[in-house]
Amino acid sequence: MWGTERAGAPPPPSLDRVAGAALSDQALLRRGRALEAVTLLWNLVGTVVLAMAAIDARSVALAGFGIDSLIEIAASIVVLWELGGTGEQRRRRALRFIGAAFAVLALYLAVQSSLILAVGEHPGHSKLGVVWTAVTALVMLALAAAKARTGRALANPVLVTEGRVTTIDGLLAVAVLVGLVCNAALGWWWADPVAAFVLVYYGGSEAWGVFRGGPP
Fold first, then answer.
1. Reported pTM
2. What's the pLDDT at 74?
3. Rounded to whole angstroms, how far apart are CA atoms 192 and 211?
4. What is the residue range of 79's domain?
5. Is position 122 within any domain?
6. Residue 12 covered by a domain
7. Scanning 1, 12, 137, 187, which has its CA 20 to 30 A from the CA of 96?
């Protein structure tokens, strides 16, 4: 009969279902912005704390971790900008910037670690540095996991990719922490630069993936 649905045909999506999906996306966007805001504020505080600890202990590793915090701040600002708008060109620009952040971080770690090993720089001890890097490792890895889930739910490669920057930040915190503890407990001043070389490969491979246009 005219005006009746064919047997077995899927019903059209209801207005309530469409509105619910839009509401879900808005909630995910708010969550993504909140995660980036927390990351931004944490790293702003961390830059100050790490500068104080690095000066007190004369630690190149802690100073380097502070520079990494500045990179994470820039990446968070870019993602907040991208989440505030739409468009493929906007998304490509954000991804390129994050890829550049990966490349800068990998280059910095490679140069810094090589110089420390070459000159035999022996940092002092910093209880503040140990506590901050330990807490930062936990916070960054938790934020990275949340960003990955939210980014996949939104199908947003920028948020997913920036979550990998946060993962590197957390792994670098672990590497710095291991170096600080080994230096303080065992006198192994070289432990931190050696551990940082692992992240050189990881950051470089992520930057390459972004610039060659592979999946984030």
1. 0.73
2. 82
3. 29
4. 31-211
5. yes
6. no
7. 137
